[in-house]
Amino acid sequence: GVSQLTLPRSYTRPRRRSLAHRSASRSGALTLWTCVLLVSGPAAESSLTPGEEMNGSGNLMDFLDEPFPDVGTYEDFHTIDWLREKSRDTDRHRKITSKSKESIWEFVKSLLDAWSGWVVMLLIGLLSGTLAGVIDLAVDWMTDLKEGVCLSAFWYSHEQCCWTSNETTFDNRDKCPQWQTWSELMTGHTQGAGGYLLNYFLYIVWALFFSFLAVSLVRVFAPYACGSGIPEIKTILSGFIIRGYLGKWTLLIKTVTLVLAVSSGLSLGKEGPLVHVACCCGNLFCSLFSKYSKNEGKRREVLSAAAAAGVSVAFGAPIGGVLFSLEEVSYYFPLKTLWRSFFAALVAAFTLRSINPFGNSRLVLFYVEYHTPWYMAELVPFILLGVFGGLWGTLFIRGNIAWCRRRKTTQLGKYPVLEVIVVTGITAILAFPNPYTRRSTSELISELFNDCGALESSQLCDYVNDPNMTRPLDDIPDRPAGPGVYTALWQLALALIFKIIITIFTFGMKIPSGLFIPSMAVGAIAGRIVGIAVEQMAYHHHDWIIFKNWCRPGADCVTPGLYAMVGAAACLGGVTRMTVSLVVIMFELTGGLEYIVPLMAAAVTSKWVADAFGKEGIYEAHIQLNGYPFLDVKDEFTHRTLATDVMRPRRGEPPLAVLTQDSTTVEDVEALIKETDYNGFPVVVSRESERLIGFVQRRDLILAIKNARQKQDGVVSNSVVYFTEDAPQLPASNPQPLKLRRILNLSPFTVTDHTPMETVVDIFRKLGLRQCLVTRSGRLLGIITKKDVLRHMAQMMNQDPESIMFN
């Protein structure tokens, strides 16, 4: 296996050429044949290898000695060859190291090359942190714009407007004369049905305007800016090419439309799309350094680190971001990438902290501090929340995938703007009457996470405090729920049903839409309801055995906010199937280090429950729906099939399209390329023996022949193409042959026809292969591509193999 990781010398390193060869290629005036006659003396001889001198083939120039543009690149919607990229990078590094000893300038260049990775990480961190800060500030302002405007400075959000006011009191901190609702501004009335209906109407109008603007910008300028982006990023990181997905236009439009989509009040979040935005930043900075722009494998290492920076700024969780990249999105994650991801996440978090978008000197909106420890008996409701999270995850994935499939296969998919407008209209109409759905989802989660202190004015904290009531000191403090709490519970129950249903239809529309925040909101609502129920049970039945030993004197026994936090983690885990990174993100998000065990219990339970109904998370389900060629490392292949069952050609199919090493003409090669759409062709000694020599990529063949016709004299349609070191013996009347040995991969990966498919799948996964040749005793029998492997796996799982559309 190891010997096949490095390509042979003839493939990777151009040979030095004679003076005559170089002058001929420069001037183009002398033909290659006359060139040889002019050469004399040791200069010419020194460049010929002993084999060339003996066989007299030194007169034939391999025009590919000078690499030409685009060789070794890939077409859109194709998979990269990880082994080839790795080999090219090793070769480049070896060349730089040997050159660095020649002069001080070359040594400085080698140092710059070594540092370029860290520079790229610094730039990604700075840009993604800045963009996240700008998005946070813009979303705050535009969300509040649906309800009113600040008269002193229209660009202030409600909170900023009342901060700057001198007339704000602590009890009425949300009310200040500078902030006016639309009804107040237009009619002068704040109360009454007229004012309410006007506010209601304008809320819907603003929501429709924001969502229409978002979907229009996506449709016209950057169709790839829609959705979460994480399924596609996972696929790209596994080696797939989607040109334009991480482009400049996508970055610009995604940033703008993300603000509009979140502000419209739809049930979506900005966290997933921020990973896409950070990866766009990574791709942008890769183009500045040839080390990354010319090597697709190295580029993917940078994108893995960029994904970590995206989560770092989305949740203010740098370590959680690194673990998210490792656990959820990355396919190839060497130790070097781990350090660089850590650095990028650190810079991004530092940049966001400097901007301070929430004004609380924290990286997140949800920062909480609980003062009550949790008790062992509380693990039961925590685990029940985990079960709820797993069930909600399963329901959401099945419902959303069914709706997205319907969108793809029916007329619905032809009207993306109308779909967004209808969903936004329904969301706005149903959300406005309920105060918990009217506000932004982030604010809702923040309120649900909050612990009820003495200064809280929220309905959720409307407990009855009667100073005259006395109880023994070792009993639970008297906090029966007041009417506000019961009203809040009804509103939260309605909000929960609304969020569960509307999120299924919202995720996957043609606007940027993240899933983290809506999933957390569903879990936080359910958790808070459970938390209040446990709290009231503990108050009213304090003499029950499970509650007896709980409390210290004068302390709250149950923290409902903690239940909301655990519920949020459970639902997010149920949908995405994250575990380690989820727990770390949650405790970084809330600062609740003491509550790791409840979070772990809920995350593991939700994963177990959800896995019982189906192994794939929402991102894997969307990858499968779109037919991307993604070989998931988590999938196990347990079927007892062999390579011969999967390879092509199968019985009854035409024979494998191959090239011979020295008897195929340029015309034959061009005809083969025209008639087939294969990504490459095996090269054999002859059609009779079918002994395998190597493998040549289709794109490299096309470019090589095109380049030869332009640069090399005497290449015509009946010129013989040869892949051997020496030219074949041809009659003098034949046109000049074309040597293409340098684009030939002399060590293609091969397996025998009796290799178990379990091993083949493992090889494809771990080495990132595009294709693998099947041989028996050196004779070529067939080929297995990544698409064949995926189709075979789908067939074995009773799924439609034709759903895998790309190679």
From TrEMBL:
- Could you tell me where this protein is found in the cell? Endosome membrane; Membrane
Q: Which UniProt keywords apply?
A: Antiport, ATP-binding, CBS domain, Chloride, Endosome, Ion transport, Membrane, Nucleotide-binding, Repeat, Transmembrane, Transmembrane helix, Transport
Q: Where is the composition biased (Basic residues)?
A: 12-22
Where do the CBS domain residues begin and end? 647-711, 744-802
> Which SMART domains did the record assign?
CBS
Q: Which GO terms describe its molecular function?
A: antiporter activity; ATP binding; voltage-gated chloride channel activity
Q: Which domain of life is it from?
A: Eukaryota
Q: State the GO CC annotations.
A: early endosome; endosome membrane; Golgi apparatus; plasma membrane; synaptic vesicle
Q: Which InterPro entries match?
A: CBS_dom, CBS_dom_sf, Cl-channel_core, Cl_channel-4, ClC
Give the family, as the similarity comment puts it: Belongs to the chloride channel (TC 2.A.49) family.
Record's protein name:
Chloride channel protein
Q: What is the organism field in this record?
A: Scleropages formosus
